[in-house]
């Protein structure tokens, strides 16, 4: 089916259309049940991975955790295959953010089969940690989380300018502190002084370096007070964007059966990206 045939038509009928409504949409009882079961499976699978990292639990229940890991892997593999089956452009979904996360959630277990041996133990551990990517699958079911994502995208330029300003400030303040302390009391170089300025400005305050001179302590006090004001700036920028996103029209949970695009209006009949009729 080419693009002209897709436009204005429903992509699937029968069981594939029903499967798409269950998997990709949350407005139906079957879709809500599917989401609830999948979220529960994701949380349980991540819990198994975390418990497997505890030595005494792994020693006593390693066999059970191994079987549970394979159960969830097979379950998510079937789910991933079904997602590809009920969209007209499976490659587009597979290369999307959620599609990549779905794949990362299952491939480490299969790779474990081909990476045996004691000297590969560290690699295997890394692959096991990658299973935590399953938690990112939850993003698909957090509608309010889209407000945060959209707000961050809308404010990225402002935040970039803010971060550039902060970086300039820490370079100037760190260099100034290096001159004030005359290369002593831990301020042995400008890069090390900049490190101190970053730690102080962000109110982390490790305490591994501290000024000893009166002028240095005064400058440090100014930087500490400045840090409280700076922390509030990006929060305010993102908050404003979130309010604007929330004030806009509410979006539907429908996912395009062709290109797997989201973010359609509640009264939309066709996909605004590819023109295919929505279910």
Can you tell me about this structure?
The chain has 279 residues and is mostly helical. The protein folds into two domains: 3-142, Voltage-gated potassium channels. Chain C (Four Helix Bundle (Hemerythrin (Met), subunit A), Up-down Bundle); 154-247, Orthogonal Bundle (Helix Hairpins), CATH 1.10.287.70. Helices cover 64% and strands 0% of the residues. It has helices spanning 3-6, 15-24, 29-52, 55-85, 90-94, 97-104, 107-112, 121-129, 145-154, 156-181, 190-201, 214-247. The chain starts with a helix and ends in a 32-residue tail after the last helix.
Structural class comes to mainly alpha
Which CATH top level class of the largest domain fits? Mainly Alpha
Overall mean confidence score, pLDDT: 79
The radius of gyration over CA amounts to 26 Å
Number of domains: 2
Distance between the termini: 18 Å
Which strand-content bin applies to the residues? under 5%
Helix content: 55-70%
* Morphology call: flat
Which residues sit in consecutive blocks of at least 5 with pLDDT less than 50?
Answer: 1-10, 117-123
Second-tier CATH architecture of the largest domain: Up-down Bundle
- Structure annotation, total helices: 12
Question: Which fold does the CATH topology of the largest domain refer to?
Answer: Four Helix Bundle (Hemerythrin (Met), subunit A)
Q: Write down the secondary-structure element order.
A: HHHHHHHHHHHH
Instruction: Give the biggest sheet.
Output: none
């Amino acid at each position: 089916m080419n693009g002209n045939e897709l436009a204005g038509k429903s992509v699937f009928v029968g069981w594939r259309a029903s499967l798409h409504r269950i998997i990709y949409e949350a407005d139906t009882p079957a879709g809500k049940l599917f989401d609830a079961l999948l979220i529960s499976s994701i949380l349980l699978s991540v819990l198994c991975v975390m418990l497997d990292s505890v030595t005494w639990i792994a020693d006593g229940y390693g066999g059970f955790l191994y079987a549970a890991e394979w159960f969830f892997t097979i379950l998510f593999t079937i789910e991933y295959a079904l997602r590809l089956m009920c969209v007209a452009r499976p490659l587009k979904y597979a290369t999307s953010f959620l599609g990549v996360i779905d794949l990362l959630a299952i491939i480490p277990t299969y790779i474990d089969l081909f990476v045996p041996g004691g000297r590969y133990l560290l690699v295997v551990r890394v692959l096991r940690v990658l299973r935590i990517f399953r938690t990112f699958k939850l993003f698909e079911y957090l509608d309010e989380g889209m407000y945060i994502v959209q707000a961050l995208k809308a404010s990225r330029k402002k935040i970039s300018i803010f971060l550039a300003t902060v970086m300039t400030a820490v370079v100037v303040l760190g260099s100034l502190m290096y001159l004030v302390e005359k290369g002593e009391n831990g301020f042995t170089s400008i890069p090390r002084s900049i490190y101190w300025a970053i730690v102080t400005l962000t109110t982390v305050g490790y305490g591994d370096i501290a000024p000893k001179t009166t002028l240095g302590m005064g400058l440090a006090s100014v930087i500490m007070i400045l840090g409280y004001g700076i922390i509030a700036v990006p929060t305010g920028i993102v908050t404003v964007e979130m309010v604007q996103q929330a004030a806009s029209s509410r979006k539907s949970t429908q996912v395009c059966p062709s290109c797997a695009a989201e973010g359609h209006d509640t009264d939309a009949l066709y996909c605004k990206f590819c023109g295919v009729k929505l279910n």
